[in-house]
Amino acid sequence: MQTPVVMLGANFYTALGAIRTLGRRRVPVYALDYHFPSAYALASRYVTKSILCPNINTSEKELSEFLINMGQSFEKKPVLMASADSYALLISRYANVLTDYYLFPDNPDDLLEQIIAKDGLNRLAAKHEMLTPKTITVDYKSDINQVAENIPYPCIIKPALSHEFVKVFRQKCLFAENRAILLKTLESALSSGLEVMVQEIVPGFDDQMYVFDFYVDQKGHITHTLTAQKLRQFPINFGSSTLTHHMHNQDLVELGKDYIKRLGFRGYGEIEFKQHPDNGAYYLIEINARLSTLNVLFDKCGLEFTYVMYRDLIGESLPDFHLNETKPWAFWHAYEDMISISAYLKTKQLTLTQVIRPWLTHHKAHAIWAADDIKPLLSFARLIFTKIYNKLRQTLSRK
Question: Within this chain, do residues 242 and 306 fall inside the same structural domain, yes or no?
Answer without folding.
Answer: yes
